[in-house]
Design a protein that fits this description.
378 residues; 6-stranded parallel β-sheet; alpha/beta; homotetramer; 9-stranded mixed β-sheet
Chain lengths: 378, 378, 378, 378
């Protein structure tokens, strides 16, 4: 089985830690390798960064694409790790060339861009995975499987959240790069908190339950002076089955790191998960026995989940393996499409549909907040 | 120091477990004793129930009050543990007679009733404590003290919740008494979930922070068929300082028992508390060190809190001691008013002001929900 | 049903907090009341202390006993809360007079004394309960029931511990009363740490499993200078079925409060309990699903346990209710003996047998430690 | 900075999951790559396995070594992942050739072999790291740094443990490969449980505190019928400073996965760590405030630890990154030795000294157990 050859767009700047994170995720399995990249906007910097990575450098994503088209550069898929505003163009270009894309979230700057990508993916039938890393955690995958399997009956309510504290002060004025682009409307879009981490809570609420949010009432706040976009994001939504979704996020919760999680309440039971204790899943049926499931390859998890595990139980797979699982999913899709034999089924990780839905959700929330909480269709 | 003599209104019916709970809380300290009661509506049943309690029985609260007025029955205060609809009349009657009242929550059926009690309390200067039991937990008291003392800076956001699962099915149709009156508008008022447990989350948000909720956007749901009132209660509120309060409650979270708690996010730190692990309080300042405080008499808690503890650290005081602390508060107020010497300061536990605010909040939430989430003044 | 009248020996000194703890436990249920006491050694102080308690005072336990014998004082049982050295004489005197005794642990100063009490209890058939408070926690009772019922198969190993930090410094030299008598051989016996809290770990290992410890290898340490007795206690024991018991305790674990608990490993499963989270019990069967059981009256606990609960699930009963359960047990034994009808079955809480076994265990451990860890018969 | 080229001995058999684990750890950082290997005993199988890994295969470790010596194969260090009995020979051979070795634990089959390796390492001054993976967890490293820095005063007692349940039944008879060689004296040495996981608990007790165990009293059990070696391992040890070490391990704790951890009690504070929640460290000073430290690159950890982190706080680095940290340590040692510039300091992870100490400890425990717990010098 030949290694898949991966290219990277972005990820090479100082402080752009996600490039290296993806590199680790790509190479965590021996079946993939990062081979080429257009890692920075500045052509010369881009080549230099590639040298640091030990891969073939290109001055721009177009140059990389040209090399692939000309046959000069072998490439099985690209991963896009640029800031939000710079997802759309390279994603579109590679998808149109039929090259699969694993793209960082949120998918694009606008709903229209996201819909455009969705159209291309549909037309070209090319694999596209949206890097909601946490959906790669086996216990989050198990939650989705359980709910689909009826374990907790019909879903009545979802409570999903993401509490962070890193933007409780004006970090962007201190020159911190991650803070700078995330709080800048030009580079991040119409919402900072909602787009960056509200979308994680949104995916938890909708991808895990399989239910869309139909309308939403929202209150967005900007607590830190001088900031233009929201740093606090609160919504109450209506699910397509009439249920309720509380989807909230904040960046001003001092001392909270990545407190992301969800509770799903069904007619027959409840499921709870916390990203910061990603290795376990709590399931209750109201019989006084709370069951905790643990990740790990020894136990009888559904095959759809078990095939994504790398180590025996009791040894947690965490951040890198979760992201690696998304790369595994696009890898499986690619190999399946090629007709390779013995390829395991890919888990239905988020793709363009979830990307479009997330963009619409954030847009509806921004609109509702401006209209003093009026219910707004997503 | 003579024992305070306590009377009880309600609490004597089968399944009315709160009567015995208050009895335990009253007698947990040797300085108080339950001596008399009008424990049921039916006069004969009331006398019989009193006999079971081993106290002097009266056929009605009026009869008890008459006996007190005539000097026939010594009484220092009454505790009212009837269903919601039957709080107002006895509370008013005793307060008007100058007899202190410790009353179960929610304070009354309507805002007007609550305001009437507040006026009497103010005019008569008679002690009144509202039995939000959880506020008697030392760690919840510590949270209030810390925030008042500036430990976390200015409050930006509060997230308080109460998740239960016991009404996930139509328990009221199965003849369960607690479920019957709580889901009956005549006996419980305009809101079931909001009034019964939403008020706990409301008190957590406002009493702990010292901040009022000014306006609110709400979505109330009734998930169980045949039910008239809400069994799910979701609100986003604006605090008087411009901050945001998420105050939510549900009774359909299968397998959740009394998952009540709060997170308060300030400019300098955060505080988190969970009723089901009431003995600890989590404080963060964003420096990578999360501090857990534990209840217990050995440690340097503020004197205002320490004087409410009964056992050394490592031995949890829980439900009964928490409620006992509210009785301790009314006891201290009574003894202070009488000029007894050496009486410790009473902690500012909830009273009529919190009762009125809670009723207004629930009413505003019901209104907002009917108006599709429109922001409504509290 | 008439209230049982309870007398108390000891518990009246300043800092003798356990007297008030027992008073609270006695009066937590309306079926018992503390009525009389010989609360201190000094006769005058004893009478004064009784006045503070609001009960009938006696200058000595003999005077109380005489009053009972003469019919002058009604009394259903006594509770003994003196320091270790002063358990034996009053216990013997009351038992010989046929009066039931609930006695603080450890039962006596020596094995011989404990055996003497056991003989009297057997001959007189008089109820005797040993106040290992933690055995009153419903989840510890559930653990015992589960193991007896075969839930985890045959027991192979028990790991029980008790970590405290309060004696990490020479607190006894600072005049702290609890520390003074516990570190004084005359008042506490041949072992401080082993006798005081090692016996709790011993009871966890043996009472919960129903298995005796046959022999033991021990290492006792005295870490704080100037101290005569052990403040650290480590043993490896052999259970009667050939299994192994790790029974350890320490008082020098800085910052640990009452970290007492056990893990029992059987052929088919494991059970784990922690006193500081007394309300839950963790059961595992090796199938990847860890089950947490929670205390609370709503759930289908065995009747033997459920009849000891006072509040619905989600509201923890903790320290006072646990001790109250031991008073409930002696109350049930007394009422049963008298032929009262409708009395619920008493749970087999620790009594003289466990007291004798505990004393023998501590003695064997002290001997083994002196013999450099040689296996010593218990 | 050129990538270090790594070779692997063993790790290629079916079920030999540690080979792939090391491969992941090696490639987690872009500065190393697995390039060659003698992955199985059978030469043909070895070549085939290498093909699967996508690396240069050799029929035997000698062949690989010859290729390195002849200059045919570039190699910076080897990692040895064979079963216990097959560590010594390749380790010795490569070390004698001056090639650094990262070797799985336990270091060898016998004390003599371990001492021989120690002599060679000393003489040749060649880097050697012993793969006690858990020591690569940043919070375990932080514990070591804190204790060395005096944070908890002088160490009085250590309690370290490792509870597993996977060998609670005769898994080796069911053909499970990991179980087979671990329970076979020829391939695993004189102790199964002690050697395999007791050594982890031993390293936690000694490496973290910096204190040697001087003598030990032990009880080893074999609970599963037909098994020759221990599956349960209990010791009480004396530390070189007079303190006490409880070092225990078991493989029959049904449902326990990798419950490894330690508590260190010092004169001024205590430190507690659990492998299954590896991302946090609990520190107490007896002032009622328990401090939890969390891993993560944003917080002010000591530079010695911070330089081993890869992601921001709130995203856990777990199993793979922990092992990768040991590869980082040998990498830093190698680069330092070569005089490369800007190389960060290597953390003092376990090496030959810890390997020799561990072997002596297990041997002393086996001896003591046979002598009925007699104190035995390590």
């Amino acid at each position: 089985m030949a290694k898949l050859k991966v290219g990277m767009i972005g990820g090479g700047g100082p402080g752009a830690f996600f490039g290296m994170v993806h590199n680790r995720a790509i190479s965590l399995d021996a079946s993939r390798e990062l081979v080429a990249g257009a890692l920075r906007t500045n052509p010369r910097a881009s080549l230099r960064a590639a040298k640091d990575y030990g891969i073939k450098g290109y001055p721009s994503y177009q140059a990389l694409l040209d090399a692939v088209k000309s046959g000069e550069q072998e490439l099985d898929y690209v991963t896009i790790v640029t800031p939000n505003f710079a997802h759309y163009e390279p994603a579109r270009a590679f998808l149109q060339a039929g090259i699969p894309v694993l793209c960082e979230k949120p998918i694009t700057l606008t709903v229209a861009e996201a819909q455009d990508l969705a159209r291309i993916v549909k037309r070209k039938k090319v694999p596209f995975v949206l890097a909601h890393t946490y959906t790669g955690h086996p216990m989050m995958m198990l939650a989705k499987e359980m709910i689909a399997g009826g374990e907790i009956g019909e879903v009545r309510k979802v409570d999903s959240w993401y509490n962070q504290g890193w933007l409780a002060t004006a970090l962007e004025k201190a020159g911190q790069q991650q803070a700078s682009w995330r709080t800048d409307p030009k580079r991040t879009g119409i919402s900072n908190c909602g787009g960056d981490i509200g979308t994680h809570a949104f995916v938890a609420a909708t991808w895990v339950t399989g239910l869309a949010v139909k309308k939403v009432s929202a209150r967005l706040n900007t607590f830190v002076k001088g900031r233009v976009l929201d740093d606090d994001f609160n919504t109450i939504g209506e699910l397509e089955n009439g249920g309720t979704a509380l989807i909230t996020a904040t960046q001003i919760a001092v001392g909270y790191r990545n407190d992301n999680g969800f509770r799903v309440f069904g007619t027959k039971g409840s499921i709870e998960w916390h990203q910061e204790r990603a290795e376990s899943l709590l399931v209750r049926h109201g019989d006084g026995r709370d069951v905790t499931y643990w990740t790990g390859a020894e136990f009888p998890l559904p095959a759809s989940v078990a095939s994504y595990l790398r180590v025996p139980s009791g040894h947690h797979e965490d951040f890198f393996p979760a992201l690696a699982n998304l790369h595994t999913t696009i890898e499986r899709q690619i190999r399946k499409n090629r007709g390779e034999k013995g390829v395991l089924d890919a888990f239905p990780h988020p793709g363009v549909a979830e990307g479009v839905a997330g963009m619409k959700f954030v847009q509806a929330a921004v609109t509702s907040s401006k209209k003093k909480g009026a219910w707004t269709r997503v």
